Amino acid sequence: MDQIKHNHIEINGIKLHVAEIGSEYSPAVVFLHGFPEIWYTWRHQMIAVANAGFRAIAPDYRGYGLSDVPAEPEKTSFFDFVHDTASILDSLGVSKGANM
């Protein structure tokens, strides 16, 4: 699991943790954890997917794992999770097209 890279991406003033493995030029597979889990849930699948030639990306949602907790966590909505995920993919340069 040493080959999984970790970084933080700032979105709307919140630093979100992202675990990633595989070439940035490969098609991406995004792993979204359940509640109350974290990216670590997908570690074995991420390695297998990367070994199959894909880029595996697994963020920690806001308030989970190594991501920041928002100032008012009780106001977090499902829309925030959708926006965060889309913003992470944009920040990582993941294409919106299906090039497979």
Automatic annotation (TrEMBL):
Gene Ontology molecular-function annotations? hydrolase activity
Tagged with keyword Hydrolase: yes
**Which named protein is this?**
AB hydrolase-1 domain-containing protein
Report the leader peptide range. none
Under the heading InterPro entries, the entry gives: AB_hydrolase_1, AB_hydrolase_fold, Epox_hydrolase-like
Q: Which domain of life does the UniProt lineage start with?
A: Eukaryota
AB hydrolase-1 domain segment(s)? 27-96
Q: Which family does it belong to?
A: Belongs to the AB hydrolase superfamily. Epoxide hydrolase family.
Q: What keywords appear on the UniProt entry?
A: Hydrolase
Query: Has UniProt tagged this entry with the keyword Nuclease?
Result: no
Q: Name one Pfam family in it.
A: Abhydrolase_1
Checking PANTHER family in the record gives: EPOXIDE HYDROLASE (PTHR43329)
